[in-house]
Design goal:
By secondary structure, the chain is of the alpha/beta class. It folds into two domains: 177 residues, FAD/NAD(P)-binding domain (3-Layer(bba) Sandwich); 113 residues, 3-Layer(bba) Sandwich (FAD/NAD(P)-binding domain). Helices cover 23% and strands 27% of the residues. It contains seven helices and 17 strands. The strands form four sheets. Strands 1, 2, 3, 4, 5, 6 and 17 form a seven-stranded mixed β-sheet that branches. Strand 10, helix 6 and strand 11 form a beta-alpha-beta unit. It is elongated.
């Protein structure tokens, strides 16, 4: 198959880019990747995306998908497993497409959740340890759980889980939370939530199922055992750059390096947007904006 524009990824950046290129009259194919809708589908409420006072992350992405389809974009539920940036047109393959070509490519592959990589974590993944409160929170109704992290993602998880659980601990390695003030204020008035700052997890403990976290106060080095029924990790993400490893220039932290005015990468005709490219602020609206920039730049490139 051949397409004028290939967009890889289906988060806010990918869908927005597709809407813009399709409206420019460019044949556009979007290949969703393994997580349709991206990380935002795991966010239970979004309150800072313009035009929506309050909307579930899944619903927001569903709206974007529907709008993308209506613009005439071909959406393929598949995963690009190979991309050759040295050929013109660019060559790619997926699980179901042995060989495809595209005149320009927009990478919107996003980022994946980080894991702590501490003792006991691998044993209890999916059996007491989760990275998605909206997916697994209902398993912990009226139970004691913990969230690990200190940014917006962690605060969102805690607030959501406090509606389900009996008690929620927020384990934050820093001296203060770094999320939005409005969210932190809401958290501070919730008597179900207990914040443990300057604290890090050392080990997950249990027999067949997770039952305890060994935690340490970073300042005093005092360790204690925290009895819980489940843990949700929200400690950040790592960019999904496996597809272009050794083909595009990356930043020191492993993100795709882009020109911020155009979202152009080190290879002419390849653009990157959203969380896979280096950005200070990880916000859905910023990802969407970078998708629009990438699309407009791709259109100009094809002229």
């Amino acid at each position: 198959m051949h397409t004028k524009v290939l967009i890889i990824g289906s988060g806010p950046a990918g869908y927005t880019a597709a809407i813009y290129t399709a409206r420019a009259g460019l044949e556009t194919t979007l290949i969703t990747g393994p997580v349709i809708g991206g990380q935002l589908t795991r966010t239970h409420q979004v309150e800072n995306f313009p035009g929506f006072i309050n909307i579930a992350g899944f619903d927001l992405m569903d709206n974007l998908k529907e709008q993308t389809i209506k613009t005439g974009v071909t959406i393929i539920q598949d995963e690009v497993i190979k991309l050759n940036t040295t050929t013109k047109p660019f060559e790619f393959s997926t699980h179901d497409i042995p060989k495809g070509t595209a005149d320009t490519v927009i990478l919107a592959t996003g980022a994946s959740p980080k894991w702590l990589d501490i003792k006991g974590e691998e044993k209890f993944k999916g059996n007491g340890i989760s990275i998605c409160a909206t997916c697994d929170g209902f398993f912990y109704r009226n139970k004691t759980i913990a969230v690990i992290g200190g940014g917006n993602a962690a605060v969102y998880e805690v607030l959501f889980l406090s509606k389900i659980a009996k008690e929620v601990y927020l384990i934050n390695k820093n001296k203060a939370l770094s999320g939005e003030k409005k969210l932190i204020d809401e958290l501070s008035t919730n008597n179900k939530i207990k914040v443990l700052n300057n604290t890090q997890p050392l080990e997950f403990i249990g027999e067949k199922k997770l039952s305890t976290i060994k935690i340490e106060n970073i300042k005093t080095k005092e360790s204690t055992l925290l009895m819980i029924d489940g843990v949700f990790e929200a400690i950040g993400t790592i960019p999904n750059t496996q597809l272009i490893k050794d083909q595009l220039t990356l930043t020191r932290k492993g993100y795709i390096k882009t020109n911020k005015r155009t979202m152009a990468t080190s290879v002419k005709g390849i653009f990157a947007c959203g969380d896979v490219q280096e950005d200070t602020y990880k916000q859905a609206i910023i990802s969407a904006g970078s998708g629009a920039i990438a699309a407009l730049s791709a259109e100009k490139y094809l002229l």
